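Let us work through a complete example step by step.
Step 1: write down the sequence.
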Amino acid sequence: MTIFEKSTNNLMNTLKQTSPSELKGYLQENFSEGTPSFSNYLDILFVQKNLKRQDVLIRANLPQKYGYKLLTGEVHTTNRDKILCICFAMEMSLKQTQRALKLYGMNELYTKIKRDVLLIVALGQKIYDIDKVNEMLINEDEQPLYDIEAVE
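Step 2: predict the structure and record it as tokens.
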């Protein structure tokens, strides 16, 4: 079990009881594999959520070939919305989305940015349909996650 599959509360309780002399063992147990990459993290979630990459890419409105390269780390994007579309398509929680963004090297959703607030609410309310999320964004005069007219 990787550190990302363990409960944060359990890890915190363990750390509270860990003496400095026990720290090396804790670090070896939990960080021997290092911090997972974005693609490794998604691989874990694909298995946990029993998802197929093709289905996720269709829901995320990403071309299959390009999407697979994004998922494996073969290509890198600077477009945060593409990663957010993957997160919504995988029905990630807010916590999982924040972790995915961070592992990808992008800014996490921020509570002082109106557009991010709308996305946080959508994730919190489990609104994973990207068209509905885009509708929420457009209704508040914010940019959709992808250009709706370009898709049609």
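Step 3: interpret the result. The chain has a mean pLDDT of 88.
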